[in-house]
Amino acid sequence: MCRYNNLKMKSFNNPFRPGAGQKPPYLAGREAETNVFRSLLQQKPVLKNLVLTGLRGVGKTVLLDAFKPIAIENGWFWAGINLSESASVSEQSFSIRLLVDISAITSPFTIQREERKTIGFLPESTVTEIKLTYEVLQRIYATAPGLESDKLKRVLETVWGVVKSKIKGIVLAYDESQILKDKAAETQFPLSLLLEIIQFLQRKEIPFLLVLTGLPALSQNLVEARTYAERMFQVIHLSKLNDHDAKQAILKPIDDEKSCPVTFSALEVSEIIKYSSGYPYFVQFFCREVFDLALQQTEAGLDPYIKIADFVHKLDSDFYAGRWSRVTERQRGLLCVIAKLPTANEEFTIKEIVAKSIEINNPFKQAYVNNILVKLIDFGLLYKNSRGKYSFAVPLLAEYINRQEGNGA
Known about the structure:
Elements: E1 3-4, H1 6-9, H2 31-41, E2 49-53, H3 60-73, E3 76-82, H4 91-106, E4 110-117, E5 125-131, H5 134-143, H6 148-163, E6 169-175, H7 190-203, E7 208-214, H8 217-225, H9 229-232, E8 233-237, H10 243-255, E9 262-263, H11 266-276, H12 280-299, H13 312-324, H14 329-339, H15 350-359, H16 366-378, E10 382-384, E11 390-392, H17 397-407
Helix pairs in contact: 2-3, 4-6, 5-6, 6-7, 10-11, 11-12, 14-17
């Protein structure tokens, strides 16, 4: 059981944060990835960029946010944002997104001073400074000849000419980058546009470092956009925490706080690791729930009694239910077949899905399976890896699906 100090409980805030992209109280198990990023900042010239991929809840956004102060401490500017569908619709929409992001770091820089004299017997003059704002960047972009890529190259070359005496380089960082895809049918190639301008700048030894994070489909999108893309990036696939690092993520936030009223028992730590499987979001979720329930029970005058397994259904509601509600009944039927595969939490093929569907008397034809998988990829539930096999993009989704089938959902 946990141990609790009733007097301290009311004044101590729950340190655990299971929100999407929320910084945990202690970032465990990401030292190797952080060291890779530090090494990329030391490149002269920049030859490699960085891709962080992984399942939902594995901590991609958190790690990306942790990189920002490291870049700044090393003399780099940081520009970027969480990409949205609207920013990736077309080359022009992405260009606007990029101009907005760059202007956030260039606006303090003066590129020109204009002296204006007033009319009168005692002539006076005022000096007006022209800053490198979004409006100025947009004018440079609009007046540059050529295609979208030519315009962006002109803008970014101009930016570097202005800021290079103050910094070592500029990091362009984009989260949820899997949505940035080329659309040949619509003759729109925003991802190719980004790769082209980054390669152009780096060939001219202008230090722009591109950092992209997203679901595993991001790696495939990059290769499809440019055959040389894999040579441009160092790809890191974030996985779940091992038991040691998961334990640190659980214990450090309370051990480091002298006033913390909660101490997890060895059994509770092992149970949290078991039910979270080491996925950082789930670790934060279970720890927060334990802490909150302990508070409620103690304030009610009860001896805290907590079973970690009791929180699984709340996790289902908070993390999985929204995604599950988006799929049709027929798609759910196929997902239930996949969830019964022995490799459901790893990877699987269409052939294996079809064979399993026949085995459990819920047959699906191969062509139909293929069509449904494409739609589930669009929903962000699955992805196709480089070996042509499929995997769930959401951790432990197979267990959730099996629980729903058991409940008749």
